[in-house]
TrEMBL record:
UniProt keyword terms in alphabetical order: Endoplasmic reticulum, Hydrolase, Membrane, Metal-binding, Metalloprotease, Protease, Transmembrane, Transmembrane helix, Zinc
Transmembrane segments: 6-24, 64-86, 98-124, 145-167, 173-193, 289-308, 328-349
Protein name stated in the entry: Ste24 endopeptidase
GO BP field: CAAX-box protein processing
Superkingdom of the organism of origin: Bacteria
Length: 417
């Protein structure tokens, strides 16, 4: 491989990625319906809907500024040989391969984190605040930042160290070992995420006894689903947006409801949303998704093992010979088109699963309650009700509200026959 060719490919990929994203954002903004579609009439009044449109326009304009800024920084850094320069400096500090990679990555993430911080701060305390979403305080925000850095530093650092260590020790088969440890780690995380990571940021309390709990139990019994772990999380600490999710599997599985969800939805609507989550579990979506991502990790690591020792990759970023960390950065960029395609497949699959979970909730609980619950959640989070089909196809892991309502209606119509 030729260094100049690799460099040109890297630049072309970065530019193409930036342009494609901007085009998608642009068509999506233009697709925003000035009046609400017929099926969604009544979920907003006119004033609320205008507010929604303003929020979307403002966040879109802001995203354009922040992404253009990071694109320019990346380009300047790349074209001036910034990666090679930083690497040359790092290797004078230590001969240890693991430490070199850690130091190299730490420097890059600190700089990119610092550059992104003002944008994130503005988005949270100006835009989200202005529209009444933000509930986070400066203190929570600062603590989140520190804890987030610490957690991702420790976890990312440990995994990266293991991969580099295997690379040094096992030669060209390092990817197999790396795959093993990354997979074991992701399964472990999926099982213990709620116990280990969530408590650092949120309080989780078991759902207290009462009418809601009784309704949930009755439903769980009806579909013979063992459901002992229902927790309420204090999402209201940071945002007014509402959600519910399923985590872990086997005996570790638990359902987590945001306190904001409990506040805004009726008991029937909550059970319907929960029935949707049970549907995911009954259809084994969680386990299948886990398996797919393990396979994906294996493919990525194998491809990486083919490229990492090519000097052209490191040299395209300004290095003087093949080295792990420069190879990693170059590979990440070169891999991006494939990653985009895999993302499309995963999103399409996820949307299919969402329809199945909705159908399960409609069939075994109540479609009408699910629809009204979903409407409330959409309104609360000001999600886009009329995304451009292309945008939805690329980015959406859940079908848009209108499509979900239509599909739930069809399930109910079939069952009524
Ligand atoms: Zn779902």
């Amino acid at each position: 491989m030729n260094t100049e060719v690799v460099f040109i490919i890297i630049v072309v990929f970065l530019v193409a990625d930036f342009i494609v994203e901007r085009i998608l954002e642009w068509v999506n903004m233009r697709a925003m319906a000035p009046v609400l579609p017929e099926n969604l009439k009544g979920i907003y009044d006119e004033k609320e809907y205008a507010r929604f449109q303003n929020y979307k326009r403002e966040t879109n304009r802001f995203d354009l500024i922040s992404s253009t800024f990071s694109f320019i920084v990346m380009m300047v850094f790349l074209c001036t040989g910034g990666f090679g320069w930083w690497n040359a400096w790092v290797v004078t500090w230590t001969d240890q391969a693991v430490l070199q990679t850690l130091l190299f990555m730490l420097g890059l993430s600190l700089v990119s984190g610092l550059l992104g911080l003002p944008f994130d701060w503005y988005a949270t305390f100006h835009i989200e605040e202005k529209y009444g979403f933000n509930k986070t305080t400066m203190k929570t925000y600062g603590l989140d930042l520190l804890k987030g850095m610490l957690v991702s530093g420790v976890i990312g650092g440990l995994l990266l160290s293991a991969v580099v260590w295997f690379y040094e020790w096992a030669g060209s088969f390092f990817w197999l070992y790396a795959w093993g440890i990354v997979s074991v780690f992701s399964v472990f995380m999926a099982m213990f995420y709620s116990q280990l990571i969530v408590p650092l940021f949120n309080k989780q309390t078991p759902l207290e006894a009462g009418a809601l709990r009784d309704k949930i139990n009755a439903f769980a019994e009806k579909v013979s689903f063992k459901l002992d772990n229902i927790f309420v999380i204090d999402g209201s600490k940071r945002s007014t947006k509402a959600n519910a999710y399923f985590t872990g599997f086997g005996p570790r599985k638990r359902i987590v409801l945001y306190d904001t969800l409990i506040k805004d939805l009726t008991e029937e609507e909550i059970v319907a949303v929960l029935a949707h989550e049970v549907g995911h579990n009954k259809k084994r979506h969680t386990v299948q998704f886990m398996l797919a991502s393990v396979i994906q990790t294996g493919v990525i690591l194998w491809l990486f093992s083919l490229f990492v020792n090519q000097p052209a990759l490191s040299m395209a970023l300004g290095g003087d010979r093949a080295c792990f960390q420069l190879g990693l950065i170059a590979f990440t960029i070169l891999y991006s088109p494939l990653s985009m395609i895999l993302g499309l497949v995963m999103n399409a699959w996820s949307r299919k699963n969402e329809y199945q979970a909705d159908a399960f909730a409609a069939r075994y609980y109540d479609g009408e309650s699910l629809i009204s619950g979903l409407k409330k959640i959409s309104v609360k989070s000001l999600s886009n009700l009329t995304p451009h089909p292309l945008y939805e196809w690329v980015y959406y892991s859940h079908p848009s509200l209108l499509k979900r309502i239509r599909a739930i209606g069809q399930v109910e119509a079939v069952d009524a026959e």
